Amino acid sequence: MRIALTVVIASAAIGVSAGTAAPAHAESANLTIDQLEAQGFDVRVSRLGSAPLDECEVTDIGNVQEQKRLVNVEGFNDRNAIVPIVVKRTITVTLDCSR
Question: Which residue ranges make up each domain of the chain?
């Protein structure tokens, strides 16, 4: 079970904070949303205007929320450890589609 514990710890250490997700003015909204989804986020979109998504500008990325579950993992020296595992991550992308 050492491998499982290592995978769990590595997975928990590889996180994306809201600080690393900055507005992508030069990138399309589609690309920004795709990148966040590839990082495991359930992306919520808030938009102003009705232009097609490929004409929208990302104005804000934030409101990161994580749901965690405690998992019992067999550890070293025949001891178990309770480890928090992220089971769902959501983030809100605000778009300006009024142009």
Answer: 2-97
